[in-house]
Amino acid sequence: MKKKITVVLLISILISLILPSSMARADFLNGAPALIPLRRDTVVATRLDSSTRVNDQNHNFHTFEVDGQNFIRVRDLAYMLSDTPMRFSVAWNSENRTVELRSNSPYVAVGHELTKVDPGGKTGTTAGSLIFIDERLRNFNTLNIGGETYFRLRDLASAFDFSINWNAQNQSIIISNGAEQVAYSISASQGQNARRRILHTSNPVIALTFDDGPGNATNAILDVLAQHNVHATFFVLGNRVYGNSDTMVRMANRGHEIGNHSWSHPRLPRLSEARIRDEIINTNNVITNVTGVTPVLFRAPYGLSGNRVENIVGSLGLPLINWSLDPRDWQSRNANTIYRDVMRDVRDRDILLFHDIHDATGQAMIRLVPSLLNQGFQFVTVSELMCFSGITLQPGTIYTSGR
Ligand SMILES: [Zn+2]
Fold first, then answer.
1. Domain for residue 188, yes or no?
2. How far apart are CA 80 and CA 77, in angstroms?
3. Whether residues 265 and 395 fall in one domain
């Protein structure tokens, strides 16, 4: 049964500077119960640039993080959730200086006063705010920066009856309301390149992976992925990184995940422990030096491992990522064959194996990516796939799909 929710939110900063704050609050709340005193603080906020793609349109926005808590503009969240059962509308009433939020059945009202803020946008003001849920009063903080009011995601979740789960390993957030799950994920490191996207559990998700590069087709593949605003995972060879550092930087900056595929592509079960460790550690080091991002995934050359190799990889803190669909692009080297086999066999939560060293693979992507999008497939990186599927990656364990 759906909870009855009535929410009244109040931020009264400007007015509280002029009037006794109890008077200002009474105007907004119209006979509501006695209020908890409001609190104001100046805080340092970290800006996160984000984007989401909804109904074929890119929507750029930003959130702010204060003390590990995430603040989002309410209208951005409304926009992101507009396609889901968690949708709600936002309307500004200039006469009352209130914001009204309405979801499906519960009625939610928010009243606020904006405060003057630091034009640099680094310093914000937190304001104590009040929220009524099921006639119980709760106290929480909002953040005012640049004339905009930001809400803590989890406070809105509470108001709208959905849950938020933070996965520290993948730096991801999963939003769900029971009826539908939405992954709101951050796959890049927090900071200027952090990005967030919305995924619907009603549609299938797949992870494209490209091995053995950077190579001949890497830039062509990056072009196709950029054209459709989708992301993939590249398992690169350490010995190819320095010679292709521009491509590596482009890959990282576009938000693709970079995994470790060893230094020189040997059959690992034949090597000593020391050499296996060198293959992996040197590759992570060179990738970190060139891109600033340290891989958290390993793919064994030829998918060859065994207990001893798995233990060594596990001791370095990395899971082993194999695949669930291999269109054997290295064998056919034919774009039509690759396209046909993938379209015939692809399933929800697949990890697809390709090689970005073959031109035919790049050509196949030109048709494959839009065709898969048309069929409703959502493209995610391997880490996002696992997060979305509720799988926590364990070092030394082999994963082949998100199923
Ligand atoms: Zn390989």
1. no
2. 5
3. yes
Q: Which of 239, 245, 188, 197 is nearest to 218 (CA)?
A: 245
At 128-165, the pLDDT tens digits run 554 444 444 455 566 666 666 676 766 667 666 666 66
Residue 93 lies in domain:
6-159
Alpha-carbon gap, residue 77 to 85, rounded angstroms: 13
CA 278 – CA 282 distance, rounded (Å): 6
Rounded CA separation 187/238 (Å): 22
What count of other Cβ atoms lies within 10 Å of the Cβ of residue 113?
19
Distance of CA 178 from the midpoint of ligand 1 (Å): 40
- Copy the structure tokens of residue 118: 């630091």
The pair of structure tokens assigned to 326 is: 């291999």
What separation in Å is there between the alpha carbon of 348 and the centre of ligand 1? 24
**Residue 199 located in a structural domain:** no
Q: Which residues are catalytic?
A: 211, 355
Residues 34 and 138 in one domain: yes
Tell me the pLDDT tens digit for each residue of 45-102. 666 655 555 555 555 666 666 666 667 776 777 776 666 666 666 665 555 444 556 6
Whichever domain contains 223, its CATH number is 3.20.20.370
Ramachandran angles phi, psi of 387, nearest 5°: -60, -50
Residues lining ligand 1 (ion), CB within 5 A?
Answer: 211-212, 301
What is the distance in A from the centroid of ligand 1 to the CA of 298?
11
d(CA 211, ligand 1 centre) in Å: 5
Same-domain pairing of 135 and 230: no
Which residues of 230-294 form beta strands (DSSP E)?
233-236, 257-260
Assign 272 to helix, strand or coil. Answer: coil
Phi, psi of 184 (to 5 degrees): -115, 95
Q: How far is CA 392 from CA 86, 89, 212, 256, 344, in A?
A: 26, 34, 26, 20, 29
**Does residue 257 lie in a domain region?**
yes
| Statement to judge: residues 360 and 214 lie in one domain | yes
Rounded to 5 degrees, φ, ψ at 225 are: -65, -40
